[in-house]
Amino acid sequence: MSLDLVADAVGVLGGLTGKGAMKVLGSPSQNLLETVVREAVQNSWDARRDDSPVTFGIKAFKLGRSQREAIADALQQGTAQTPPVLELPGTREDFDAVAIYDRGTRGLRGRPVADAADEEDGDFARFVFSIGETKPRHGKLVAGGTYGFGRSAFLKASAFGTILVHTRCVLPGTSKGEKRFIAMNWREPYELRRTRKKYTGRHWWGDAVGGGVAPITGNAADELAESFGMPEIPSGEFGTTVLILQPRWSMSDGNEDSEAEVDDRGEALKKMKQGLLWYVWPRILEGSLQLEIDWFGEQVELQPPTKHPRLKLFARALEIAEKQREPRPGELLASIDCQRPIQVLGSLAIAHRAHVGGSDDDYLDPSEPLHHIALMRDTRLVVEYLRCAVPLERSEYAGVFLTDAEVDQVFAASEPPTHDAWIKDQLPSRRERVLVNVALKKIASETREFVNPVGDVAEGSGAGLGAIADELGTLIPDTVSGSVLGVPRSHKGGGGGGGGRGTRLPSGARIRIGRAQYREDEGRHLLDIPFDVESGPNATMVEARVRVVVEGGGTEEEAPEGADTPEVVGWKIDGMSRMRVGAQLTVPANKQVTGTLIVRQPADCTVRVAVGGVS
Length: 615
Description:
Elements: E1 4-9, H1 18-21, H2 32-46, E2 54-62, H3 65-74, H4 76-80, E3 96-103, H5 123-128, E4 136-137, E5 140-141, H6 150-157, E6 162-170, E7 177-186, E8 190-192, E9 197-209, E10 212-214, E11 216-217, H7 219-227, E12 239-245, H8 258-286, E13 289-295, E14 298-300, H9 311-323, E15 331-339, E16 342-354, E17 371-376, E18 382-387, E19 395-403, H10 408-413, H11 430-451, E20 471-477, E21 484-485, E22 503-504, E23 510-513, E24 517-521, E25 524-534, E26 540-549, E27 555-556, E28 567-573, E29 579-581, E30 584-587, E31 592-600, E32 606-613
Parallel strand pairs: 2-13, 17-19
Antiparallel strand pairs: 1-9, 2-3, 3-12, 4-5, 6-7, 6-12, 7-9, 7-11, 8-9, 9-10, 13-14, 15-16, 16-19, 17-18, 20-21, 20-32, 22-23, 23-25, 24-25, 25-31, 26-27, 26-30, 26-32, 28-29, 28-31
Helix pairs in contact: 2-6, 2-8
């Protein structure tokens, strides 16, 4: 069955080109196919019916000859055009496809045109025609996908820039369904020489009507999908299938030899499995989302979150956060609040254990212990794994932060098209930016305090000390060599904690700081600062602070816009194998402690470090 080709012509006011539309995703932090599954599962979750479970599936396969012929026949108006919209391999040449589908959803419902008022149910038009349109629901953003960018990832993942879409959707206000099929292609803009007419590079294959295009409907839609090898939508069910022609198993152009292709397929499967499991595990855990993967005829099972060696610690943290129960020893449950304006932001829960190590197929770096907080909204889909304070040696922790319902939409609006971060600068109002900023900072500070609690000091010990004392001079990263100049103000002399008498505090304790040395460790820029703390008759608590130096010589708590934030990593004490993580250190009464203070120094800002007693 040959379908009508409809090309998007450039109007008098111009228009977004197909190539330009593919750039709306920006530069995702994930692999491309990982981005595809994250976007797809978010769309599927948003389209769920009532409280019924959603099935989300992936089927990768090599197209058979009859399937390739059916595709060539359906899209032949595009391959025959000069210049061709689509250049398919010959029907005797093999190429792959991957179908991404859902069942138990409403399908792509709504009127199948983009110029009709259909705000509530226009899923089909948003996915097929519109670009970057936010879907409202009852005056608010939807709880799941808040951007119309998912289809960009699908098209970008095809080496041919082409996808086929089959849906059986619920007609609004009824229990009846409609079957629909349409094909799409995005490419660079072009001009037809014979007409001198310009086109944006966006194309659709379907039924040409009224200067536009409508999907093929009824049994013909099902027959087309079946001829291409797309998974069947069982009778009485609803859902959507998107078939990606010749997936980019890697970001190369697909010209590798067959052995390399197989390797790329394996890596693609690994990335897609990781993206699914680590992104949707909360919904898998509760049974509201079921996954199935058919990879070139092999049924692939994902490890249950409660049995996964690392995810099960996050699962325990989610249980604490959701049930709001008294945490056990080694666990934390805290409310994250903003004081100005007064607003509850969400709940933070952390579970802790001895370090068990990771595996090669872990989503997070298996070479380091867990020290991450899973950020999520009411969707219970993970937005990001936020790295926080490094745990003590031979230990690790995992946490979950759940936004409060009242601010859920603020955090939704702060997400980029790929839903993989909370970015305060995307928000329009200062109040909203403050809420997101405070949440991220308090998550980090609460976690740091949990990982490295202040050492106990006997009540009535008289350990009150003065404010921050011994201040280091400005530490300036050389932008060429990366070297650091550190000149202590309180004394002269070099490293090792020696040199000068240091600063004597009112309690009788003394703090001495040596010259900072710069080093790199796994891509981190670190300052090693020798220290010597001699306590008085009572225990002494000291604290290190690091501030950003701004123009004019002043300091600020936050780094400049776009810069990384400096932090105190911890205290490495001579003669001890464990590092004391965090900014504070307690020295017992009548003791002298020497070692190295470690500060993370971003390469893009200047900092000032101060060390002193805590009152």
